[in-house]
Write a sequence for this structure.
């Protein structure tokens, strides 16, 4: 078969497979035979699948033997490496990057300069190229962390252009002419037991072998990252940065990691590109390259690793197949791209996050045992926490003492005082409700406590320590969980993954452990999975663990949010209108869940409009109206309090326009 | 002081082109939160349409004012029509899909437009009639200002002023501002959302095409790939001023024009990109929403 025909066959073949895959998921996703089969595949180690696939590619090139076909495959491998890196930034962390070519350039120049000027061996330049591009990622990332995505587009684009222009103007790196005569990769000659070993990679097939080896490393590491605590943190940030922060994910640090990691993959690809082409100049690293890599990942399906390979095959292969239309090649490519994106906005091989049996392979636990296990584990956690707390020289708050102290807190928006000099305590182990008409300042107060907003005045102490001015993830890490008034689950993640994100502050695995997938990290992952299952069991949601968060009913989403808030074993939880949108039966279940939470020894603070629920379960109630605290006491007193009745129903001598009781 | 003022004049002239294209980015972004990457290429399309009329169809033989009016109006209308087609085919189906999908769609449109222009008009550099406009100028002190420069800046300012008056003073302008804040609420108030979106695309294209013809008249030479750099500068300008903000886009355009001109004058043309983006990044680090942008509070 001629090279072009083979390329076209590959393209059509992979497209057909991806179509079948889509159909399979649509038709069979509820069929247990299909899902069990999928889970079995899942258990085959990823590295072995990658190596088998890439070996098959190498074998195909070897049998075909056509240099042109092989060189196209080498380009596909280069683009796939780039795509994997950009996928970390764009696909996982959701940060737009239009200047990815910069990392490619820095990697290529680092390796090229080291091999031509310092005469290093290619393979030893790779780690340095990766190190340099990682640093460049940090330099780009640091000033841009707080920018919104549309602004990121132009800043990253600018970074890409600045890098290219700098290389263009830099005489040591050859200026516009670039660097020529970059040596081939070689294994230096040495003798081992009398046999002399050494090899210079110089044919296209040799390059393909080197490229596939590097690609294998890039793929395996990328997969390890995706299925780690870090990867889940990234995806959570992409879905909802505020919610991620509030469950303890340090969003700024993770974004910086994403830039660094993304840059490293670009450096790997760049070094390989330099030695393979043999001569580089600034025109190889234009904006168009950044766009092409972005197209690779969006076409394949953002966030999907097999999608990157498929995207690279299309972006490189399609123009080659279209060579006969040389003049209008880019025009046709543009139209083709538009058609594909209009038809398949999610990409050709999208990452499917729902998982019918997420706990496949774990042993089944009795419901009674689950409750006991949670209790034991939570008590252990609490004891450990208190010990840590005491060791750090803080006073441990005993049952019945104030765990949350709000002292004279003021929050102001423009001229409106949303919270006006509010003072109260919440005691350890109690269920405390905050009620009041809409606009009373309840959610604003929650936002001040959890660090989303900084109060204009006043003190907030949790566990006897001030939390004013701390970032939300730090406060979450101190053992404060929360839910939101308008549910903020990570919509495109499965239910069990949502809860696993909630466990983020619990574990301390390092990034390198995640990259290498060390035994310690694996154990942590399994523990995380098991705990997510227990917490879902705790709120009665285990049977829906594999669904996407958006597929759930309103009440179920609220329960998942509660499980997510509990996952890290907090000792104080803040629930913002947990009963909103629930029917009477579901409210009774919620009632039981809240009591169970208190049974674990967790202090619960509620904002709630459902008076019967509030009166049933609260130990004490605070009433906020127009930002001021108008009453504080046990339920029976609050019900009789004239100020409270007036706030809700208005005074009798007023014009009869009762303020809305709230939704 | 001599060169400084001279660079300032050049900077303001170039800056007014950037400002016109930047306004197109900003209007469209303000309404649909979409970066229309085709904006720079729309300008090039306008330039080529004007060139076709003046050179190929011999409009340059007509009396100058008449020739100019036709050479501006027809390209502007033609480009607006093209932008509407782009909106309907490439953007509308993706409005509720992912942000990335629509971005890729915009990039594809840019690719299609610039390569389409190359296909239709050819890859060569074409030239506007060089002697169409008077080359004379006058000296303000030591600074030489051509009448063309003055005319171009005045026309740009007039176009921008009309736009501001339109957005601030008319009912449909109010509808545009309402839409920029909240689509659903605007729809519930009886605003025809689709029509306003179309209007934004028409306005963006009109400004882009006008800047294209002006660029052709000023620089004489045009090429199919011009749109990329122009779009890049204008996009930078829009973000610098705070994307979605109309005065911001104008100020941003002028600032970018000046920075570019000073860099070329005092340092070297080859550092232009580095300095321009350096300024942008510095501004964004200090003010993450751009010079005139407002911080958007997110409801928890």
């Amino acid at each position: 078969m001629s090279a072009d025909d083979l390329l076209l066959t590959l393209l059509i073949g992979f497209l057909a497979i991806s179509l079948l895959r889509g159909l399979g998921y649509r038709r069979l996703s509820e069929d247990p035979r299909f899902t069990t089969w999928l889970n079995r595949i899942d258990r085959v180690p990823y590295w072995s699948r990658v190596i088998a696939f890439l070996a098959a590619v190498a074998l195909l090139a070897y049998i075909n033997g056509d240099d042109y076909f092989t060189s196209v495959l080498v380009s596909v491998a280069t683009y796939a490496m780039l795509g994997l890196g950009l996928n970390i930034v764009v696909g996982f962390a959701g940060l737009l990057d239009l200047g990815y070519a910069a990392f490619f350039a820095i990697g290529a120049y680092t390796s090229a300069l080291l091999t031509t000027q310092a005469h290093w061996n290619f393979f030893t330049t790779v780690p340095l190229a990766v190190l340099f591009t990682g640093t460049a990622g940090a330099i780009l990332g640091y000033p841009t962390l707080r920018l919104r995505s549309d602004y990121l587009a132009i800043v990253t684009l600018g970074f890409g252009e600045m890098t290219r222009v700098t290389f263009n103007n830099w005489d040591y790196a050859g200026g516009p002419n670039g660097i020529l005569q970059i040596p081939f990769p070689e294994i230096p000659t040495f003798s081992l037991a009398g046999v002399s070993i050494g090899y210079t990679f110089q044919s296209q097939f040799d390059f393909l072998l080197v490229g596939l080896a590097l690609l294998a490393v890039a793929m395996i590491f990328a997969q390890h990252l995706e299925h780690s605590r870090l990867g889940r943190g990234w995806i959570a940030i992409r879905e909802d940065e505020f919610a991620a922060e509030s469950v303890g994910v340090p969003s700024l640090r993770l974004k910086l990691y994403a830039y660094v990691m993304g840059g490293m993959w670009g450096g790997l690809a760049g070094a390989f590109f330099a030695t393979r082409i043999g001569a580089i100049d600034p025109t190889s690293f234009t904006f168009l390259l950044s766009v092409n890599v972005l197209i690779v990942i969006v076409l394949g399906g953002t966030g999907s690793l097999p999608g990157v390979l498929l995207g690279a095959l299309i972006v490189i292969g399609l123009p080659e197949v279209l060579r006969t239309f040389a003049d209008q090649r880019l025009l046709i490519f543009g139209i083709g791209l538009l058609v594909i994106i209009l038809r398949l906005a999610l990409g050709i091989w999208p990452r499917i996050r729902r998982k019918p049996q997420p706990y496949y392979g774990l042993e089944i636990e009795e419901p009674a045992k689950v409750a006991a296990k949670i209790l034991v584990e939570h008590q252990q956690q609490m004891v450990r926490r208190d010990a840590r707390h005491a060791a750090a020289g803080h006073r441990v708050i005993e049952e019945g003492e104030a765990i949350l102290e709000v002292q004279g807190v003021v929050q102001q928006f423009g001229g409106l005082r949303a919270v006006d000099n509010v003072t109260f305590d919440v005691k350890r182990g109690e269920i405390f409700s905050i009620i009041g008409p809409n606009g009373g300042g309840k959610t604003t107060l929650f936002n001040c406590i959890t660090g989303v907003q900084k109060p204009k005045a006043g003190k907030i102490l949790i566990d006897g320590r001030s939390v004013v001015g701390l970032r939300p993830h730090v406060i979450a890490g101190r053992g404060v969980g929360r839910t939101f008034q308008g549910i903020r689950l990570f919509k495109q993640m499965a239910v069990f993954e949502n809860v696993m994100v909630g466990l983020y502050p619990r574990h301390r695995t390092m990034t390198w452990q995640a990259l290498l997938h060390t035994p310690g990290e694996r154990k942590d992952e399994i523990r995380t999975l098991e705990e997510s299952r227990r917490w879902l069991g705790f709120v009665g949601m285990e049977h829906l663990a594999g669904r996407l968060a958006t597929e759930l009913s309103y009440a179920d989403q609220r329960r998942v949010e509660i499980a997510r808030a509990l996952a890290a074993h907090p000792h104080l939880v803040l629930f913002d209108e947990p009963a909103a949108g629930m029917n009477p039966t579901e409210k009774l279940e919620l009632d039981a869940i809240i009591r169970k939470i208190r049974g674990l020894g967790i202090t619960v603070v509620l904002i709630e409009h459902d008076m019967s629920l509030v009166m049933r379960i609260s130990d004490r109630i605070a009433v906020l109206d127009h930002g001021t605290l108008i009453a504080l006491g046990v339920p029976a007193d609050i019900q009789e309090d004239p100020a409270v009745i007036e706030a809700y129903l208005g005074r009798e001598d007023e014009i009869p326009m009762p303020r809305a009781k709230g939704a | 002081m001599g060169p400084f003022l001279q660079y300032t004049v050049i900077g303001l002239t170039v800056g007014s082109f950037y400002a016109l294209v930047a306004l197109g980015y900003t209007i469209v972004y303000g309404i649909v939160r979409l970066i229309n990457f085709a904006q720079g290429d729309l300008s090039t399309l306008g330039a080529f349409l004007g060139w076709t009329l003046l050179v190929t169809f011999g409009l340059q033989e007509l009396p100058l004012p008449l020739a100019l009016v036709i050479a501006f109006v027809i390209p502007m209308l033609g480009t607006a029509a093209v932008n509407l087609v782009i909106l309907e085919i490439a953007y509308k189906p993706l409005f509720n899909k992912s942000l990335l999908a629509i971005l890729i769609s915009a990039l594809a449109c840019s690719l299609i437009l610039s390569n389409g222009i190359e296909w239709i008009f050819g890859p060569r550099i074409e030239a506007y009639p060089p002697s169409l406009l008077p080359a004379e100028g006058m000296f303000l002190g030591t600074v030489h200002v051509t009448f063309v420069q003055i005319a171009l800046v005045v026309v740009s300012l007039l176009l921008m002023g009309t736009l501001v008056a339109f957005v601030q003073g008319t009912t449909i302008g109010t509808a545009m501002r309402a839409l920029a804040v909240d689509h659903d609420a605007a729809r519930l108030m009886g605003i025809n959302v689709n029509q306003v979106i179309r209007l934004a695309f028409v306005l963006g294209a009109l400004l882009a095409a006008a800047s294209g013809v002006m660029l052709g008249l000023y620089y004489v030479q045009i090429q199919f790939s011009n749109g990329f750099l122009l779009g890049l500068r204008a996009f930078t300008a829009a973000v610098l001023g705070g994307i979605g903000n109309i005065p911001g886009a104008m100020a941003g355009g002028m600032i970018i024009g000046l920075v570019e001109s000073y860099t070329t004058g005092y340092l070297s043309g080859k550092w232009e990109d580095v300095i321009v983006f350096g300024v942008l990044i510095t501004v964004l680090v200090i003010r993450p929403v751009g010079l005139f942008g407002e911080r958007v509070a997110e409801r928890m």
